[in-house]
């Protein structure tokens, strides 16, 4: 029986020499691989008491929405600045070179709601740290953060140390 990592294509030296790029599109292009990825992510939250699933743009939408559907939960979008039509809150965070800003609708999470945040990959952890801060600013409680893949060599878990974080597949390098 295949494992999720069997569906992940590794591309050496992309986007620069020395990087081993973990390509999620190879999972999405294979029906069985995609089903397995969703099923394995679902196992990470089956026993988690939550009210809402939130996903970070854009691959967090790909994996978070089917999880929300499977669990019968609402799905909340965490988007890049300027993409949401209603009143939003925002958080700016540091990137390797510069900054980025993400937003959520002000009414996306109600005070006291328990939220699981979903994304495809944890690298340095900055995006999801900002996403968790948005959830908390709205009065929500981040009860779990899950990823399909983790690049352990980039130490993203350190930024998310106060949260319950799990990944389906962990790669030791960068």
TrEMBL record:
Gene3D superfamilies with a match to the protein in the record: 3.40.50.2020
Compartments it resides in: Cytoplasm
Catalysis performed (reactions): AMP + diphosphate = 5-phospho-alpha-D-ribose 1-diphosphate + adenine
Main location: cytoplasm
Keyword Metal-binding among UniProt keywords: no
GO cellular component entries: cytoplasm
GO molecular function, one term: AMP binding
Phosphoribosyltransferase domain sequence ranges: 26-166
BP terms from Gene Ontology: adenine salvage; AMP salvage; purine ribonucleoside salvage
UniProt keyword annotations, A-Z: Cytoplasm, Glycosyltransferase, Purine salvage, Transferase
Key word Transferase present: yes
Pathway participation: Purine metabolism; AMP biosynthesis via salvage pathway; AMP from adenine: step 1/1
EC numbers on record: 2.4.2.7
InterPro entries, per the entry: Ade_phspho_trans, PRTase-like, PRTase_dom, UPRTase/APRTase
Short name of any one Pfam family annotated for the protein: Pribosyltran
Function: Catalyzes a salvage reaction resulting in the formation of AMP, that is energically less costly than de novo synthesis.
PANTHER family the UniProt entry points to: ADENINE PHOSPHORIBOSYLTRANSFERASE
Family: Belongs to the purine/pyrimidine phosphoribosyltransferase family.
Quaternary organization: Homodimer.
Protein name: Adenine phosphoribosyltransferase
Species of provenance: Pseudobutyrivibrio ruminis
Phylogenetic classification of the source organism: Bacteria, Bacillati, Bacillota, Clostridia, Lachnospirales
